[in-house]
Amino acid sequence: MYLAPALVVLAGLLVYPVYQLGLISFLEYTQAQVSGGEPTTFQGFGNYATLFADGQFWQVLLTTVLFAAACVVSTLAVGCALAVLLTRVRAVPRLALMLAALGAWATPAITGSTVWMFLFDPDFGPVNKVFGLGDFSWTYGRYSAFALVLLEVVWCSFPFVMVTVYAGIKAVPAEVLEAAALDGASQWRMWRSVLAPMLRPILTVVTVQSVIWDFKVFTQIYVMTGGGGIAGQNLVLNVYAYQKAFASSQYSLGSAIGVVMLLILLAVTLVYLRLLRRQGEEL
Amino acid sequence: MTSFVRGAVRRPWRLAAEASALLIAVIVAFPLYWMVLSAFKPAGEIESTEPRPWTLDPSLDSFRRVFGQQEFGRYFLNSVVVAVTVVVVSALIAFLAATAVTRFRFRFRTTLLIMFLIAQMVPVEALTIPLFFLMRDFGQLNTLGSLILPHIAFSLPFAIWMLRGFVKAVPEALEEAAYIDGASRTRFLWQILFPLVFPGLVATSVFSFISTWNDFLFAKSFIISDTSQSTLPMALLVFFKPDENDWGGIMAASTVMTIPVLVFFVLVQRRLVSGLGGAVKD
């Protein structure tokens, strides 16, 4: 009975739209059908066939995977490195770093994007000035635009990793480490054989969360590259689906892309659940 | 832990570590500093090819442009209304649901939990398309309701997932004691469990607050013609012009938009960290 409100809301606004998303992806659904000018027709896998025959789709898919992977790896590397650093310093530098990270964490994606754009602005930005890059435009080239978005994504998502991993390291009981030290374990050995296994559940959680977040990056790409970059060079699946649906009114193609994304993320979730199971967690 | 760290790290190394920690803190904080600084710079200094990390005559011009913008106050108010409604409603619903899944055993409990987990993975942006049609069919386009409802739905799964840990932490003996003392189920729920879980609710609400406050996709897609129903991110995008971006206005609007989140974050910071620890451990 306590569950009723949650189930009603979720069924109406999550399950039903997902069902609709799947349905639309099998229909012919463009501007004509939206306004009721033409009847909707069932297309079967027609939309998917169109999509899979489109070279751009595969390119965007590949870009999305590579970009998400780059974001996840960088975020985890920075976050974990800084978490270790936090354990090595006294209170004042630790507080400074924590506060700075919380600030970055709290910054809304849209304002973060605008600020980073301004920092790297070819005319008025301090970054080009400091590094003597002249009027080099970061958003013009494909890779430099992705690099800029990557930096912003890492900046706003490493704090979650850092704070969580730091909390995890702090939670390791001192006795365990003392025992290891008494047994003559070296620093490296201590990290590899004692801390790493104890931190594994936490690392799994932050990795999976990062994969899910970075695979769905939308705001940063949309704002910083002006909706997908010059000639769509910076498109990722999410933005691609949105542009297909709302910019060119091909709602069914957009939905089909959405379904593909959903399936990929579902696969990630299943891997995550299996990892949880293997660690013997009870839900 | 302390003995391990302190004992093993020699002094020069620790100083080097502390110096780099401070340096990194400065780098991480720099974008925010630059944002606030640029918001206060007079127009000539922002659009200067010699950017300086300080300003000698701060001005409120940019803020004046932001607040002078047609209906900016309205946008701000709309954002607040949407965010507060979502936070309160989803916290209450999530509290009830989290209680149900931790305190009662029923047939599809595990299935339900897995569903909540999977629901978190659903890409919000992909659902914009069907939600758009749903809102149209219910005549909700161009209303704040079209922003509130989807956000409640999207913040629920994570909120329930996270609150579980907090509800679980309340000993069952307390519940039995309450019943023995003659408390009804409702009374136990609202007068005993609710205050105990409240810190967790606050931590959870940060996430729903942030995702709602930051959203610009729904605002962009569902509020098409009636600009009086628009929210803050839209007010920010106004300053982007095809040929000449008004950077002063953008930075000032960004500052105005960031500050409420920062304040909220600092207030709940400690609960947030312990809340995350709890969510991770379970």
From TrEMBL, chain A:
Keyword list, A-Z: Cell membrane, Membrane, Transmembrane, Transmembrane helix, Transport
Keyword Transmembrane in record: yes
Gene3D superfamilies, sorted: MetI-like
Transmembrane feature ranges: 56-85, 97-120, 140-169, 190-213, 219-241, 253-273
Pfam families: BPD_transp_1
Biological processes annotated in GO: transmembrane transport
Annotated membrane topology: Multi-pass membrane protein
Similarity annotation: Belongs to the binding-protein-dependent transport system permease family.
Protein name as catalogued: Inner membrane ABC transporter permease protein YcjO
Record organism: Streptomyces jeddahensis
TrEMBL record, chain B:
TM helices/strands, residue ranges: 21-40, 75-100, 112-135, 147-167, 188-210, 247-268
Sorted UniProt keywords: Cell membrane, Membrane, Transmembrane, Transmembrane helix, Transport
Ranges for domain ABC transmembrane type-1: 76-268
Cellular component, GO, one term: plasma membrane
Pfam families in the record: BPD_transp_1
Main localization of the protein described in the UniProt heading: membrane
Membrane topology: Multi-pass membrane protein
Single Gene Ontology BP annotation: transmembrane transport
Origin superkingdom: Bacteria
Subcellular location: Cell membrane
PANTHER family registered for this protein in UniProt: INNER MEMBRANE ABC TRANSPORTER PERMEASE PROTEIN YCJP, MALTOSE TRANSPORT SYSTEM PERMEASE-RELATED
Family, similarity comment: Belongs to the binding-protein-dependent transport system permease family.
Descriptive protein name: Inner membrane ABC transporter permease protein YcjP
Organism: Streptomyces jeddahensis
